[in-house]
């Protein structure tokens, strides 16, 4: 499954109403650690069919970043049944992200 760009316009449909867990990657183009984490997130999106993966550009979607209390990026949030199940700040190893998703 490919990565979905999450905006305030598609957030309800893609995240809150999702029938499977959603991994949200809060990032920005100018963020070096975000660029390091991005290929790992893309890889997880390609490998896992039972998880939805979305990226939120904090510069373009400041309301969503505020809603989740994102103070530092990258921030990873796992949503299950419309609720926050796990949050991690900073670059995470793939194994940690998979564990957040229950894999």
CATH architecture term? 3-Layer(aba) Sandwich
Which fold does the CATH topology refer to?
Answer: Glutaredoxin
* Basic shape: globular
Trace the largest sheet across and list its strands.
Answer: 1-3-2-4-5
Distance between the termini: 16 Å
Domain tally = 1
Low-confidence stretches: none
Assign the structural class, choosing from mainly alpha, mainly beta, alpha/beta, alpha+beta, or little secondary structure: alpha/beta
Q: What average pLDDT do the residues reach?
A: 96
* Largest sheet report: 5 strands, mixed
The CATH class, by name, is Alpha Beta
In CATH terms, the superfamily is: Glutaredoxin
Q: Specify the oligomeric state.
A: single chain
Into which percent range does the helicity of residues fall?
25-40%
Count of β-strands: 5
Question: What is the fold's blueprint, element by element?
Answer:
Layout: E1 4-5, H1 11-16, E2 22-27, H2 32-47, E3 52-57, H3 62-67, E4 75-80, E5 83-89, H4 94-100
Parallel strand pairs: 1-3, 2-3
Antiparallel strand pairs: 2-4, 4-5
Summarize the model shown.
With 103 residues, the chain is α/β, with parallel strands linked by helices.
Explain the overall architecture.
With 103 residues, this protein is of the alpha/beta class. The chain has a single domain (4-100), classed as 3-Layer(aba) Sandwich (Glutaredoxin), CATH 3.40.30. Helix content is 34%, strand content 26%. The two termini are 16 Å apart. The model has no long low-confidence stretch (mean pLDDT 96).
Name some characteristics of this structure.
globular; Glutaredoxin; alpha/beta
